[in-house]
Each structure stands twice: as structure tokens, then as C-alpha cells.
Amino acid sequence: xxxLALVGGGVxxxxxxxxxxxxxxxxxxxxxxxxxxxxxxxxxxxxxxEETLTRFADNLGITGIEVELGQVSADGDSARTSYEVTLSLxxxxxxxxxxxxxxxxxxxxxxxxxxxxxxxxDLGEGxxxxxxxxxxxxxxxxxxxxxxxxxxxxxxxxxxIVGEVGAATEDDLExxxxxxxxxxxxxxxxxxxxxxxxxxxxxxxxxxxxxxxxEEEAAAQxxxxxxxxxxxxxxxxxxxxxxxxxxxxxxxxxxxESDPTALVxxxxxxxxxxxxxxxxxxxxxxxxxxYAPGSSFKIVSYQALLGHGLTADATMTCPETAxxxxxxxKNAGDAEYGRQSVTEAFATSCNTALVQxxxxxxxxxxxxxxxEQFGMNSDLDIGVPTTEPAFPAPDSTTMLAAQSIGQGQILxxxxxxxxxxxxxxxxxxxxxxxxxxxxxxxxxxxxQIAHADQLRPMMREVVTEGTADDAGFNxxxxxxxxxxxxxxxxxxxxxxxxxxxxxxxKGDVAFAVVVEGGGSGGKVAGPIAAAFADAI
Length: 536
What we know:
alpha+beta; five-stranded antiparallel sheet; four-stranded antiparallel sheet; 23 strands
């Protein structure tokens, strides 16, 4: 294989000082191997060599070139050498063939004597190669139990995840490559688009001789000159982590809600996404919605405090209001609870107790670092569009306090918030995964949550004695409610609308519910979460 590439001014210097034809042959084929067709053209005779080579490569969808040269034989001002080239073709595998490379000496310089036959021995003047393709059977998209998700019945939330197969357009061809023609089936959204190459397989490929400029008519040739036929392969299946039973429970739990609602479930021990449900349809707010998390974020804040001196048996003070950095914070319903244990303050979701401790014990760096342990500011790459959970570093003590109660500048999604209770359940935060086969590469390592064992009883008391005690949970469920204000306040006394949250886990299933504009997390999102938890 040639491993030498010459570019820019180095080519001119090399040509002017080139004493042997084999050195030109090596430099030319090295430029081809680097797919530097301009450098190759500088080592060849003729006009439009770069354009001709580029057209040849684009027509075939070349993604890699390997060239092996034979011995050069010279006779006066002429020389030639044999070559064997292996072209890697997009969606068609490798193709190898042999040819000859003629060289000529002009004013002491050796150059490749270029013609179409240099690219392939069957080409004449004005001719090039192109592909005509035929696709095999497309792979399927499956649930975790092997059942099909890509059927006509698979609409709604699952349909948005699976995506659609449509006809390739002219605009699609640049992305898809020459294995495709306008009108060929291709994934246009969701997993169908992300995993197009796997699902489509490799096209059966007929490589044909055509006149330059007539590539689009190649499929209609009555007596084509076929130089190679490459057998295709059927597509392979993509298996997701979605669990039909859990998905059904999620869909039933939100069914009938009048406000836009989303529910996401993940498996704490693996990070696998088990379910994602949205109502109404048409927008995958479960993955792409952007919301402040409100008090559901306090799981993260208490983890930070427990790591910076607060102990689980400490006492906190919950007044009606607390001033931090000149801004007055208050509790839902203007409540005040006086002296409370850490667990009680968490279970009653006391804002004023929390912001005082945060202002005394944490700084911007400490809270941001803990938020990032729980996946904030990380790309949740699951194969379909998702919102990246954002935790901008607070730039003041007031903003630090606001973000500790899930307000300020935080934006996250139900998908991400489902991973927060999952991290407590498992003891490590895991980036969510949606596809099991093929296994996703380059996933981040799990992040250990050092005080998960102290957070669990706090989350349990939310359900048994705290803000979710009337939500209707049965069994051993752990959770946190949240009411996340949104909009803009003219002054600190303005009442804003809020999204309703509940995040929690039961066994090896963690979940997040958000109801847009729903208000109280315990009264609105909690019963939805309870219906889901009872059904799994």
C-alpha cells in the first residue's frame, strides 16, 4: 500500500526534482490514497484531471483507496507499471481490480500520462463509471423483547422514536451517497434515520461504463457495459431497550390528561430507557422538552450539601421567608415549619431551609460539579434528538440559591430527570441508553453518588409523610415532587404559573413525570406517577 502523500508547494518541488518514473508513480498513487485529487492532477498530463478523478470518486461513493504498484518498466521517454487498486465503496463494501499506469517524460520530468483508462482499463475517452443499485430487505426496529416497533400500529410516542421511512430526495443524496437514487427508501427521522446504514444493509451494486454527464440514465441502459457486480446484503435489526409492558403502563398513566404531559422510565442498574410517553402527540417532550426542574432538583442539591458538611441527623430551620443575596425566597403556600430534621426539610420541600444551607456551605463550583455528576451539561446521545440538560454556573449567591431549588437558569428534560432518581436507586448516575443492539460506543463511565444511601430514606419520606403522601402510591416507592415556576416576574411578589413534576423509583424502574402548567407536583404529577408505579 502506498503511504506517501504530497500536497501544496511540496508537489511542485518534488516534480521539478523527480529523477525516476517510479517516484512519480508512487507520489501519484499516494495522492489518490489520500483522496487528494488536486495533488494527483499536478503529477499528471492533461486538462481537467482533478475534476475527472473527483467525478469518478463521487459516482462510485469511494470512502477509501488502497493501491499496490508493480515494477516500473521504462523505455526512453515512456514508462509503465501495473497496479492493483482496492476501492471501499459506501454501502457496497470493497472492490478490487487491476490496471496499468503509463508515464511520460517531458523536459526531464516524469508525469502520469492521464486518460480515463488510467482510472479503469475499460474506460474510453469521455467515459466514466457509475453505480446502479438494488436494495435488499430492510432491517426492523425491535423492542427489548424482540417484538416489532416499526409497524403501522406503532404510532404515538413510539412512532416518534422509531421514526419514518420515506423516499430519498435530491437533498438527501449528498448525505446518503451514491448507493441511493431519488425515490429510494430511506430513514427520514428517528432511529430509522440514525441507523439507516445498518437497517438498509449494503445495496446490490452494478458498476457500469457511462458517458460523462449521463450517469442518471445508467439504470435505463438497454445493453449496459457492466464491469463489476457486487452482491448486496439485507439490513440488520436494531433492538431498543423499550419494554412494551412498561410503555403500556406509561401510556395508560398519562391517558386523558388535558395539559401537555410526558413520562419517561429508565432502568437504574443499566441506564436503559424503558418507556417514553407523551400527550398530546406530535412533539416528543419526553426527550426534547425544556423545563426548569423545580424542587425535583433538590435531590442534587442535598447530595451537594451532604458532601460539604451537612449531616443526615442535622437540624434545619424553615422560616416563612429567607433572604439570600438581597432576594427573598419563600415556600409553597407561604408555609413555615420551624426546626426540622434534614429528612423532614426534604420531605416537606422547604425552600427557605435549603437556600440558607446552600448559601452557607456551597459555592458555584461545588453545586455545578454535583449537578454534572448527575449528567447536567452532558449530551444525552441516545440515537434520537434530546435536550442537553443545562446547568449554567451561578454567577451570584442569589442565583446559586435559585438554582439549588431548581429555578434560575436550569433547563432539563423528563428523560434527564428520570436519570436523577435512578442514580440514587443504583448509587451511580448512568447516561441513558435507548439502543441495546448495536451497543452504543463511547458511553461515559457511571458517576458514583457518594451519599445515595442517605438520600434514599429522604426520598421515601416524601411519599410516606411529605408532599406526595396523598398521591396514592402503593408499595415501596421513593420520590421527590417539584413545582417549577416559569415566565417572567415583574417583581418578587408576582405569582407565576408552574410545571408539575414528580421523579422517583420503584425497584429497578425510575421515572419522571412533568405536566406543563400543572401547578402542584404532589397533587398533579404525583397521582400520575402513582398510577404508573402501581401498574409496573
